[in-house]
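Hi R.,

Here's the chain you asked about this morning:
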Amino acid sequence: MLEEPEAAGVSRADVSLVCANALHRKLRPAELAQILGPDLVAEFGPRLRCHDAEDSAELVDLGCMLEHGYPVEVHRLVVETDLTVYVNARYNRGFEKLLT
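And here is the predicted structure, written out as tokens:
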């Protein structure tokens, strides 16, 4: 996923990654390394962070959904960035044992 912006002239140093873990606890670096790979975790360091849905300093209120009236808050990087790309890494927290 990072090769396309890089080929278009976007430096990887200008890219930040946010793990959208909803209300779950933040993942530890070792857990992120299992999902994303240790090289990526090492390369991005502090530019790889986990979303905290309860950290009001990191959230931007976008108002309410018109149809249902639910409040919409997103990580501030989603609002401040020129481009947001969502990638689903499909990580299940402990549910594998329940499904087998």
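One quick note: Residues 3-99 form one domain.

Cheers,
M.
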